[in-house]
UniProtKB/TrEMBL annotation:
Its cofactor is heme. It comes from the Eukaryota. Pfam families: p450. Coiled coil: none annotated. Keywords: Heme, Iron, Metal-binding, Monooxygenase, Oxidoreductase, Signal. It comes from Knufia obscura. CDD domains: CYP67-like. SUPFAM superfamilies: Cytochrome P450 (SSF48264). This is Cytochrome P450 monooxygenase. Belongs to the cytochrome P450 family. The keyword Metal-binding applies.
Length: 475
């Protein structure tokens, strides 16, 4: 094809010849690391597939993702797209804007204060399970329980009905086929398997019409159907509730049914399913990773933990679940969370965009139209110029460091018109959970010298994290 235009740029191994290099790295769950190593050796502009340039430079963030840049999402997003597009995989600008406008106000900082009761009640259920583990001196897999937490929170926010994972202590939830057969299936594995195969197949997007059919019998595609059936079940139930008038009018789903004047929006079932699907995905998996990573880093760094506890003990009273208001202005708590998002970004993979007609200069180099470009999130978040000793977990850098310089390279939620719509909710969840857990509980990794694994499918999912827990002395 026209891949020759990228010949001037260096590439690792055979990446310039075939996307099989990326696909292979992704199948090993370590795509982000392979790209990171490549940038270390080859510099800022690296060709990671025949028509894909990865650019690790703060300027490239604005050039590619910034407001006004007008780079559209790449065909990679077709890999996971169903019959109807949702907010995250809509590639046409006008279509995306219409979807985003529908929900933007729901996720604004002002409105999310309304979510406090749901979030607090779910934190209480999380703490009850931690307490149970402490009392019975059994270990607890915090990675799983933090994921149950985000699933319960988001199903409550979206459907007005918690999927109840925390109370059951598992993620077995109801799914439903289009002909009404209800069955039970694990939420997390269904989502992870589906995301992984879609990520891989999207990396050779021109072949999607073929590979989507070829792999339709693959177990991971079946998992995708299970995940869709979970969404279908909850959507149908929620619609039934709407018809009998006993539904909540404050959940996010209600905002997809009517506008603020109560007039129907007329979305069809396929569109309701698509938006529910992306929210139960993006709204649960990333925040679960962020929470797990932060708990891991805090209990790995006793000095940081002690300092955070000092701040929390001074600023909050002895209620078990601190209010968001009492936490939102605490600089060190926020720094601990920010530094975790930097060091172990839940979304590490460069997000692919297409260079618009006419070509563009990106971070000082002219790139021809039609080229796929991305900024490697993991790599830029470890930029040694922006972040001194970038491999260190050092929350203090967010207090004493060069904030302006760091802000130019810090983008765990992406940036510009396609940046994360859920970041305020996510910070809300993270601050309250981290504060409540750290205040009350001492943890110890069951395995000596434990290192938390990163398993990158699309998101960077943390591996299992099994811990002993005791009530904190004096708490
Ligand atoms: C720590 C937690 C989170 C991280 C690190 C994160 C990260 C991201 C990133 C990097 C993007 C850009 C994706 C792309 O360009 O393809 C994104 C988009 C998105 N996120 Fe999040 N996210 C988080 C939490 C959430 C939550 C709680 C929600 C719940 C609603 C959410 C919903 C979305 C949606 C709908 C988009 C697509 C936005 C658009 O294209 O307009 N995310 N997120």
């Amino acid at each position: 094809t026209d891949g020759n235009k990228l010949r001037q740029f260096p590439s690792p191994s055979f990446a310039g010849l075939s996307s099989l290099w990326r696909i292979y790295k992704n199948l090993q769950y370590k795509h982000y690391l392979a790209i990171h190593e490549a940038h270390k050796i080859l510099g800022t502009h690296v060709r990671i597939a025949p028509n894909h340039l990865s650019i690790s430079d703060p300027q490239a963030l604005q050039d590619i993702y910034g407001h006004g840049a007008n780079f559209l999402k790449d065909a990679w997003y077709d890999g996971g797209a169903g019959e109807y597009r949702h907010m995250a995989d809509a590639r046409v600008k006008a279509e995306h804007q219409a979807k985003r406008k529908l929900l933007a106000h729901v996720f604004a900082p002002k409105t999310i204060a309304n979510l406090e009761p749901v979030i607090s009640a779910t934190v209480a259920r999380l703490l009850a399970q931690i307490e149970k583990a402490a009392d019975s001196t059994s270990s607890i897999n915090m990675r799983r329980y933090l994921n149950y937490f985000t699933i319960d929170v988001f199903s409550s926010i979206l459907y007005g009905n918690s999927l109840g994972c925390l109370q059951r202590g598992n993620d077995m939830v109801d799914a439903e086929t289009k002909d009404g057969k209800v069955y039970t299936i694990p939420f997390i594995k269904s989502l992870h398997d589906a995301v992984h195969i879609n990520t891989v197949l999207g990396m050779e997007a021109p072949l999607l019409p073929l590979t989507k059919r070829l792999f339709s019998f693959h177990s991971h595609k079946k998992a995708g159907a299970d995940y869709d059936n979970i969404i279908y079940h909850n959507t149908v139930r929620r619609l039934q509730a709407a018809n009998t008038d006993c539904a909540s009018t404050s959940d996010v789903f209600s905002k997809l049914l009517t506008n603020n004047k109560g007039e129907p929006l007329g979305l069809c079932l396929g569109e309701l399913l698509a938006e529910g699907s992306v929210m139960m995905n993006a709204g649960t998996d990333t925040t679960a990773a962020a929470l797990t990573n932060t708990i891991y880093l805090l209990y790995k760094h006793p000095y940081v933990l002690t300092k955070l506890r000092q701040e929390l003990d001074e600023a909050t009273d002895n209620t078990t679940i601190p209010s968001y208001d009492s936490l939102s202005h605490l600089p060190y708590l926020r720094a601990c969370v920010e530094e975790s998002l930097r060091l172990r970004p839940p979304s590490s993979m460069g997000l692919p965009r297409v260079v618009p007609p006419g070509g563009r200069t990106i971070a000082g180099k002219f790139i021809e139209e039609g080229t796929t470009v991305s900024v490697p999130t993991y790599t830029l978040l470890r930029d040694p110029v922006a972040f001194e000793n970038p491999d260190e977990y050092n929350p203090d850098r967010w207090i004493n460091g060069d904030k302006e310089m760091m802000a130019r390279a810090h983008f765990p939620f992406s940036t510009g018109p396609r940046a994360c719509i859920g970041r305020n909710i996510s910070y809300f969840e993270q601050l309250v959970v981290i504060a409540a857990v750290v205040k009350g509980w001492d943890f110890e990794f069951v395995e000596g010298g434990f290192e938390l694994e990163t398993i990158e499918r699309f998101n960077s999912n943390p591996g299992e994290m099994v811990m002993w827990v005791r009530r904190r002395e004096g708490a």
